[in-house]
Amino acid sequence: MRCPVNPVWGLVEIAALAVLFFFGLWSIGPRLGIDPAAVAMYWAFVAIGGAAVMWLSPVVLHRDPPALRGWGRRRADARDPGSFRNAWRTYGAFTLVAALLSIAVALLKDPALVAGINWTALAIKFLGYLAFGVVQAFIFFGFVQTRVRTMIPLPPAPGSVQRHRLLVALVTAGIFAVFHLPNLPLMGVVFATGLCWAWIFYKRPNVLLLGVSHAVLGTILHRVVQMYMRIGPFYSEPDLYVFRSVIPGLKQLIGNQF
Length: 258
What we know:
Elements: H1 9-28, H2 36-61, H3 66-69, H4 84-109, H5 119-151, H6 160-178, H7 184-203, H8 207-223, H9 242-246, H10 250-254
Helix pairs in contact: 1-2, 1-5, 2-5, 4-7, 4-8, 5-6, 5-8, 6-7
């Protein structure tokens, strides 16, 4: 008989992910362009973290159902609130409102800004973000939020579900923002959008829809609002940007566009 895993173990898992991420970002990241061994170590960290987030923690340790974590094989159940047919309108409505607000901010900042958009760079950014946004959705909502949700007890009291939902969303958004250090303006935006995504994901968990929403809003934030998006050591040293150093040919394709 399988012994249940203590929900508090999720805190250890999140802390381990943070150590892996920040060590890789700050210690290995700056060496990627000058040390081939660092690239191999980087991909080893990605493999370890990916296995933990996508298989070891949710499937082996906790046996989270797909309907909770927002991905995986799900039954074709019309009652599943996170299924595509039940969730796309919620994610779509939030993405549309947030996109329009972002564009409005850009226009207030510079009425001629939209006319000067580099559409090629915008398309490349969006295509990259489709993959990058889904990966972040897996990590911060499919994994981190699921662990936070199971760690925080749900009090058996009237209205407790909404309070639990808000607390889970706040903690998840806070963790999401911390992973974007030291870019404080970006952290503020990430916390606000992360709070909304976490609130939606609690009721309608769908990693792919959240990832697409992230791709749309991240692209607009960078290419239209023109917010500086670099984090970690790349915040002040953009030429060392990690993805351009570890994926062959990407530096020639994107330049400084991502």
